[in-house]
Amino acid sequence: MQTFIHDLRYSLRTLAKNPSFAILATLTLALGIGANTAIFSVVNAVLFQAPQVKDEHRLIVIWVNNLKQGWSRVGPTGEDYLDWREQSKSFDEMFMFEHGTGTITGEGEPEQASGLRVTTNFGDFFGLKPVLGRTFRLDEEQGKHNLMLLSYGYWKRRFGGSPAVIGRPITLNGESYTIIGVIPASFSTLFPIDVIVPFDYDWIKRADSDLGVFAKPKPGVTLDQASAEMSLIEQRIGEKRAYRKGWGTVLVPIDDVRVEYIRPALMVLLAAVGFVLLIACANVANLLLARAVSRQREVAVRIALGAGRMRLIGQFLAESVLLALAGGIAGVLFAFWSTTLLWKVIPSRIPVPNAAAEILLPRIHVDGKVLAYALFISLLTGLVFGLFPALHSARVDVNESLKDGGRGLLAGMRGRRTRGALVIAESALAFVLLIGAGLMIDSFWRLLQSNPGFNPDHLLTLQIKLANDAKDSKYRDGTKQADAFQQFLNRVEEVPGVRATGLTEIVPLSQQDMSMGSFVIREMAPPPPGEKFAADLRRVSASYFNAMGTPLLRGRAFTDRDNTDGRNVIIIDETLARRYFPNQDPIGKHIHITDFTHRGREVVGVVAGVRDTGYDQQPRPTIYFPFLQVPAQTMSMVVRTSAPPDAILPAIKNAIWSVDKDQPIFNVRTMDEIVEEVVSAHRLAFVLLGVFSGLALILASIGIYGVTSYSVSQRTHEIGIRMALGAEKSHVLRLVIGNGLGLAAIGVAVGAGAAAMLTRLMASLLYEVKPGDPLTFVAVAALLISVAAIASFLPARRATKVDPLIALRYE
Q: According to the 3-state scheme, what is the secondary structure of 173-191?
């Protein structure tokens, strides 16, 4: 320990004698360590922070699927849940829930609260200890109980955190509920909701699909074993209920569900920022090698006086570790600042693919785990970039270095090879990063240029849910629902600045619950046994396609005459027309949707395909119904404006409230915001890869400049002789620049091989771009070679100005 403390003091003194070197090395490392720490803080918050509930790592999600019909992850029915719970032996517990919203009225402005309807084992399943009151009891499963739990955030926001809220009545969807408890704030990381109410047991038995089920496998039961048992249960269910024949189950751990959409982007970024740190290490190692030249006489004297080489290596490593720790401290400060920026770049909610759900991301911050990571990589970095210079310095030729004018090993061939190898490594790492950034730039540009089937510009979306649960509700009748929505439309159309309005059951790209159904075509033979024609189903108003900017390709759009008094009609999209009516005109054909009572709906129009599930997903077959014929309790309004949507929003709300003053308006978002969220993973990788590749390019160019400049200083004597013997300045330029370009070219070759393998990891993030895109590889190679030429030119130009007489007397 005394030796170590002595080495640290000595290192501090030597670094203090050369502050410019110490500052340059510290700042270089701070960039690398700070960027790594910042990205790790994101990875830590997103990937390594499990939901704070009981047995969180045992939780799995169970969906049903039917790949032949195109359904990959569908919520089960209430009957499915009851059968699973009764027949399965692989699970300790099962829990069922349903996402939804409810209208809170009676206190202030009407509000649409997000919530869950749950089985009464809710509290026990998640091990929740209420902040106030209690959770539901298991014996409350039977019958209907109008009880309610509040989330911690909603309790604070709506009720000011008052303890008197327990036992208080609250009106939800026109019915009175009693508040019995407040759940802890930590539960919001799993379900960002406002209220929780229990299922009505009779309703469970008749509940349709789109429910959610969590389960906990018994200790020792693997996911494969549980999946095998669930497959057998599904076969028995198919034998009992014919419409479920051919369906299976999908079991996915909750940890995977929460992060599967954004994990590939984070892993690519973590690897990219690691490359930046390695390049920074190579640069500092080159600085240390150059600095060692001025210290070789000192090292030789110490060896001659009896210092051991291991002792010298330890001292040099102490200096590099000290620099790394200083860089780590500066890097942590940089990380504190950059996490604020990252929070603005990374979306607060991320979609769960093919599941019509979203996950709330925890806030990014630098905690103890992140600080420990920063300390670890600082120490590791100090050892990595300090080891080679330490080994070279300790192997100095004592006799040669002590001679007057001796230049020692570092000035010889071995030192130049080491420095050249570091520059090659820098160039290769920079090339890989630049390839990744180039692919993402190309991919992101293509993604944004793709046609989603509608025009997102100046388009506002909002959701309206009519409260029809209460027996005396004025909206229990479907005709009254249709009349109310039509009045909302008419009033909003009168608002100044509104160009067009429309209603839709599901807003494209919004991750709302997808409605799908099977159908047959009257004029065609039925599908083969075991197969079905399937499509997404949408209710829309007559003005919807005009408001969205979705082109009508054939036939006509809906009109207000397409109501319950008119004939049953539908509009299909071009994807369905192309798949099921090849080389035919679908207008006038009749489609029977098996889940609807109306038979033989006539196709009256064909519209462009819409990317409902993702900007990078192709349109799926879709059938549109006139909502006046098939009313719904919940609809979304789309409003095309001539001014910024936010400026017109208050007038739009007042127009709706002029029809019903108690009607909540929720999920208010512009289409630009929805698109931005959907492409969030692509945008995150695009922005940060661009930043990191820019850093890598700068650091690599500095490294090439440093090596070339050092080479010129070491070859001053040689250059002087060449010029004295008649060498032209152009020859010297070619000699020096060729040295830098040669190192960069080797680095590009090595990097191309590494990039060809590593970019395959980015395949899930790319859109219409192949990981081995040759144009990107050629462009990046040309860019890196050009930067190397520029970095080599300045030292080369200096070399041409060498005075032969001075150079011949060099050293």
A: CCEEEEEEEECCHHHHHCC
Q: 511-549 b/e with 16+ CB inside 10 Å = b?
A: bbbbbbbbbbbeeeeebeeeebbbbbbbbbbbbbbbbbb
CA distances from 775 to 4, 295, 434, 450, 770 (A): 53, 47, 13, 20, 10
Instruction: List residues bridging with 141 in a β-sheet.
Output: none
Q: Are 56 and 181 contacting, i.e. CB atoms less than 8 angstroms apart?
A: no
In the chain, count H helices and then E strands: 23, 24
CB 560 within 8 A of CB 629: no
- Strand segments, DSSP code E, in 159-254 are 169-172, 175-182, 195-198, 212-217, 248-253
Q: Quickly list DSSP for 582-606.
A: TTS--TT-EEEETTSSS--EEEEEE
E strands along 448-547, which residues? 459-465, 498-504, 516-521, 533-540
**DSSP-assigned states of every residue in 686-735:** HHHHHHHHHHHHHHHHHHHHHHHHHHHHHTHHHHHHHHHTT--HHHHHHH
Which residue, among 215, 242, 240, has the nearest Cα to 230 in the 3D structure?
215
Q: How far apart are CA 246 and CA 59, in angstroms?
A: 26
DSSP 725-761: TT--HHHHHHHHHHHHHHHHHHHHHHHHHHHHHHGGG
HSE at residue 104, side-chain half, CA atoms within 13 A, is 23
| Regions of the chain with pLDDT less than 70 | 49-50, 69-70, 106-110, 209, 261, 290-300, 303-309, 311, 344-363, 392-416, 468-472, 511-514, 529-530, 595-599, 681, 710-711, 713-717, 802-811
Cα torsion 133, 135, 141, 144 to 10°: value is: 50
pLDDT tens digits, 243-277? 777 888 989 888 777 777 677 777 777 888 888 88
Alpha carbon distance 339, 241 (integer Å): 53
